[in-house]
Fold this protein.
Amino acid sequence: MKNSLTENPGLKGWHGSLELAYAQSGTATQMVSAKATAPLKMQRPFYPEGEGVCHSVILHTAGGIVGGDSLGQSIHLQENAHALITTAAAAKIYRSMGEVARQTIQIQVDSGAYCEWLPQESIIFNGAIYRQDLRIELAPDARFLLWEINRFGRSARGETFVEGEWRSQTEIWQQGRPLWIDRQHLQGSESAVASDHALGGFPIVATLAWIADPVTPELVQEARSLWETRSSSSDGEAGVTRLTHGLLCRYRGSSTPEVRNWFSEVWQLLRLRFIGRPSCPPRVWPI
């Protein structure tokens, strides 16, 4: 099995695409354009918290991503639009025979707009070779919240990530200036599974990033306190960092509900502080 991100041009896979655009009309945010090619598809928009916030659910109809797949998404929030974008289920990245599975996502958030990018968990099977590139372009007074939860190996079956490779690159830019760049790379091996500098014996790593308004030290402490209230019953680890343009939360542990619940509490904190409305979990999320 190959251990580097190289492609075999003779192998074919899905080449799916998704193009979305949102616009504000009066007090409502509407999905004004949605173009998709298999295996990507969009559900109809939902408005569980009123017409001002458009909840959107991305479907992957093939059931999982395999080596050779190349998926691209392009999302545009026009002025003052507010969209929450999630996925219908956990993403599965299957074992590869040597070829790379790729996903490229580009998001443009215009003046006054707010994008919440909240996909469900990704399960990276042992032996998968996967690369994701996420680039966001923010207008000066736009807001962006993302989280990503990655499980390495099907841990319920006792599987660990001892083969394969995972790369993730997230870049957030504003008028040609980088606000936050995050590059992560994990080479599957027994040492990576055990190392304190990699998985540390845990199957899950997760990130939440708020890039928009500066946060106060008091808000950082509130986010830490939300973790501390649950840490006594957890073997997981977490940290909160104040960024120049926002807030960063990291998690390493064993429980998807645990990290999702903590992230949801931080999301609620940020929503109330900066948007003036409570968070509203999408209806497709597990209870």
